From TrEMBL:
Residues 2-31, 39-68 form the 4Fe-4S ferredoxin-type domain. This is 4Fe-4S dicluster domain-containing protein. One of its GO terms (molecular function) is iron-sulfur cluster binding. Signal peptide: none annotated. Keywords: Iron, Iron-sulfur, Metal-binding. The lineage of its organism: Bacteria, Pseudomonadati, Deferribacterota, Deferribacteres, Deferribacterales. PROSITE patterns: 4FE4S_FER_1, 4FE4S_FER_2. Gene3D superfamilies: 3.30.70.20. PANTHER family: FERREDOXIN SUBUNIT OF PYRUVATE:FLAVODOXIN OXIDOREDUCTASE, FERREDOXIN SUBUNIT OF PYRUVATE:FLAVODOXIN OXIDOREDUCTASE-RELATED. InterPro entries: 4Fe4S_Fe-S-bd, 4Fe4S_Fe_S_CS. It comes from Geovibrio thiophilus.
Amino acid sequence: MIKVLINGEKCKGCGLCIQVCPKRILRFSENINSMGYNIIMCTDQDACILCKSCALVCPDVVFTLQKQDSGGK
């Protein structure tokens, strides 16, 4: 399972990540950070293909992408 972590406090809601996501799983949430911006959220963690497009385009470096271990070693 892949996990998309978004630092909402650093997000300025520019929406560039929404535009470049090939799976269309990013959108503006209703949550507003302390700077007054609507932050980005991932709508379907399982659909993420870990292409890193969101992280590469983000001017505020708010994305951390982690490939989750399925539990077995």
